[in-house]
Design brief:
14 helices; globular; alpha/beta; 399 residues; binds magnesium ion; TIM Barrel; Enolase-like, domain 1
C-alpha cells in the first residue's frame, strides 16, 4: 500500500485577459483569478492536485492541519480521508476541495481517467454556455449570437436587479429574441448572499413566484436559485408551484446529507452540487444516485476555475446523467475565457461546438504548467512525514 508522503500548498494569482464583474458578487471587479493549490505526493511519487477559489489569505494556515490529518494515510481510502475532511469541517473549516486530489491519485494508480474508474461511460459532455456578468438587453443579444455561432444551443444568463421588472424584461427579451435557435435559462443567485462588496436584492417567495411565471411564459429551460438556500420549505413550495424547473444546490457545504434531505422534501427539480464545495466527488455521486431514485435531475455547478470545471466534469460523466442534462461551461468574454479561467493548466479546457471531450489520461486529466505556476504562484507550505517548511514570506510577496 502506498501512503501520502508529502503535501505542498501554493497560492496562485494569475491575471485575467480583461476585468470580469461576476453578477453574484455586486461591486466586485476581478482582474485576476486567485486560488489555493494543493499537491499531495505519495511515497511512490504519484501526485494528486486540486485547487480552491480564494479571496485572500484565509487558507494560509492550513498546512499543519493537512500534514497532521493526511500524511501517512492511504490515498485510496476515500472514506477515511473524507472523514478527516469532515473533522476539519466540524472545526469550521470546510475544505471538500481536497478530496478530488485523493481521487486524482487513486485514478492515476488505477491507470484510468477518474470518471471511468467511477464507472462512467460518457466520454463526451453536452454543454450549456454559462455567462457571468449582468448586461443590458442589446449586449445580451450579442452575447447569445456569439454563443450560438460557436455551437451552443443553451445559454444561462444572470439577473440581479433590485427592480423585478428589469429582471423579467431582460429574460423575456433574450428568450423571445433567440426563440427557435437557443434555449435560455437564468441564474438568480439568491441562494447565497455575497454582499461583501455591495448590496444585493433578496427575493421573497412572492417575487420568485412572479418571476417563475414570467420565465415559464417565455419558455426558459430552468430557473436557478430563485430563493435563499436555507429556506427549504419556501423553495419546496415554489418548486411545487412553478411551471419551469427549479435548480440549485451548488454550494451547500453540508454536502449530500443536506442535499438529499432537500431532494426528499421537494426543494429543487435539478440538483447542482459542486464537488469542490459540497462534499467532494463521492458525495456528489451520492446526490446523483438520490436524484435518480427520486426522479430528479442532476448536473454539477462548475464556476470556480479550471480545476473545479474538470473535477465536476468527472462527476457528471460518472453520474449517469450526461445523456439527460447539460453540463455547465463558464464563459464570459472577454474576461472569463479558458486561458484565464484555467490559469496554470497546460491545456485549457476548450469546448468543441458546445461539447466537451473528457480527458483520457489517468487521474483528473490535466498537467500543471510549472512555468506559469512559478510565474503566478508561490509555494508557501511544504511538509513531509519528516519535516515542515512554512514560508510566509513567499505569500507576502503576492499580497
Ligand atoms: Mg448557479
Amino acid at each position: 500500500m502506498s501512503v501520502l508522503d508529502r503535501v505542498e500548498l501554493y497560492f496562485v494569482k494569475a491575471p485575467l485577459p480583461a476585468p470580469f464583474a461576476p453578477s453574484w458578487m455586486p461591486g466586485l471587479v476581478r482582474e485576476a483569478i486567485t486560488f489555493y493549490l494543493v499537491r499531495f505526493i505519495t511515497d511512490e511519487g504519484v501526485e494528486g492536485w486540486s485547487a480552491f477559489t480564494s479571496g485572500g489569505r484565509e487558507r494560509a494556515g492550513l498546512g499543519d492541519t493537512l500534514a497532521k490529518l493526511f500524511l501517512g494515510e492511504d490515498p485510496e481510502d476515500i472514506d477515511r480521508l473524507s472523514e478527516r475532511i469532515h473533522i476539519m469541517a466540524v472545526g469550521g473549516n470546510f475544505n471538500w476541495w481536497l478530496e478530488p486530489a485523493f481521487w486524482d491519485i487513486k485514478a492515476k494508480q488505477a491507470g484510468l481517467p477518474l470518471y471511468k474508474l467511477l464507472g462512467g461511460t460518457d466520454d463526451c459532455l453536452r454543454l450549456y454556455a454559462s455567462s457571468g456578468e449582468l448586461r443590458d438587453t442589446g449586449a445580451r443579444r450579442e452575447e447569445a449570437e456569439a454563443r450560438y455561432a460557436e455551437g451552443f444551443r443553451t445559454m444561462k444568463i444572470r439577473v440581479h436587479d433590485f427592480d423585478e421588472t428589469v429582471d423579467i424584461e431582460h429574460v423575456s427579451d433574450i428568450a423571445l429574441y433567440m426563440h427557435g435557435r437557443m434555449t435560455i435559462s437564468v441564474d438568480c443567485n439568491q441562494a447565497f448572499r455575497l454582499t461583501q462588496f455591495g448590496k444585493a436584492p433578496q427575493w421573497s417567495l412572492e417575487r420568485a413566484r412572479r418571476f417563475v411565471d414570467a420565465a415559464a411564459d417565455v419558455g426558459l429551460a430552468w430557473v436557478e436559485e430563485p430563493l435563499f438556500g436555507e429556506w427549504h420549505e419556501e423553495i419546496a413550495r415554489l418548486t411545487a408551484y412553478s411551471r419551469v424547473p427549479i435548480a440549485g444546490g451548488e454550494l451547500h457545504v453540508m454536502g449530500a446529507s443536506e442535499l438529499i434531505r432537500m431532494a426528499k422534501m421537494g426543494c429543487y427539480n435539478i440538483y447542482q452540487p459542486d464537488a469542490m464545495f459540497a462534499g467532494g466527488v463521492k458525495q456528489g455521486l451520492e446526490v446523483a444516485r438520490a436524484c435518480r431514485e427520486l426522479g430528479l435531475k442532476f448536473t454539477p455547478h462548475t464556476w470556480t476555475n479550471g480545476f473545479g470545471f474538470i473535477v465536476n466534469a468527472h462527476v457528471h460523466a460518472a453520474s449517469g446523467f450526461a445523456g439527460e442534462t447539460l453540463f455547465e461551461y463558464p464563459l464570459d468574454e472577454p474576461g472569463w475565457v479558458p486561458e484565464g479561467r484555467d490559469a496554470i493548466i497546460r491545456e485549457p479546457f476548450r469546448h468543441d461546438r458546445g461539447w466537451f471531450d473528457m480527458p483520457q489520461t489517468p487521474g483528473l486529466g490535466f498537467e500543471i504548467d510549472h512555468d506559469k505556476l512559478s510565474k503566478y504562484g508561490c509555494c508557501f507550505y511544504k511538509a513531509s512525514r519528516r519535516e515542515v517548511h512554512w514560508m510566509p514570506e513567499a505569500l507576502a510577496k503576492i499580497f
